[in-house]
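Practice set, problem 2.
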Amino acid sequence: MASQAQPPQVASALAKLGADLRTARQRRGESLRAWAVRMAVSVPTIRRMEAGDAKVGMGVYATAFWLIGKTADLKNIADPAKDAQALALEILKTDRRRK
């Protein structure tokens, strides 16, 4: 089961993301059914997404981002140029090679 294998930080992040998407849907006055139709998924899938279920596909989350106008945020979430940890490791490797 995916939820058992994930770190607590991941479960917490997905729970917050799901709750935030629920709030975004509700603030727009959209019903579960309306979002399900617009996203071409079932109402139970929307409920699971809003609960932060790790088994919900990335495409469902991505479509929800699109519905709330956050596609640009999604496109940049793993941007290598903004990956400070990887950049620091590359600098460290470069420094070690120079020595």
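Problem 2, part (b): a different protein.
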Amino acid sequence: MLLRSLVLVAFVSSSAFADPPTTSGVCQANAKVAGVGDDQQPAKIAGCPDPMELERGNGFGRGPYPAISGALPPWDLPGALAYACAYACAPAGAKAALLGWSAYEDSRPLRNDNAAYVISNPAAKRWTVVVMWRHAFNKWWNIGGGFHDPKTPIRTFDHAPTAAELDAMLEANGWDFSAARDGFKLVGGKLVDAAWPSTPPKHFP
């Protein structure tokens, strides 16, 4: 099944967190991300216990975008993980793993980054899926495009979500790996097999 263009966080069993280590980690209490103002730090921007769905930042910046090559995006992955944990309202010690990522760019150029995470808090029997995105020049991540965005970027389970449930969550939030759409061209992306409870239903490339 095709997957689309945002960022997912889900809570799953610890066995799902395998190599590579750069795509996984542990949630920290009140994590701080370098280069981000106080009002845009993960805990502040998430607004737990009811995370806010707002678009923040227009995405225009100076200089070229970083080159994309290989299996991982050229991002601050620990920073992305911190936002994923915050939007999931995860406690310190919960485990998080990158489920998938993609980046699209148009002719302006404007690039949108998208990623999918898996985070688990089995002691509380709480598994939460969070979908995020950002304009590439921004260091912080969003979970929605505005108050009237029909997507549901956060979903909580009382069990470790299956591959089918994760796939359905991604599809419901507009994920795919189409080469081009709405004037944007896919410039990179991949699913991280180690984060899935079984083989992902669709691989990229």
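Answer key, part (b): DSSP finds three helices and seven strands in the chain. The chain has one domain: 14-195.
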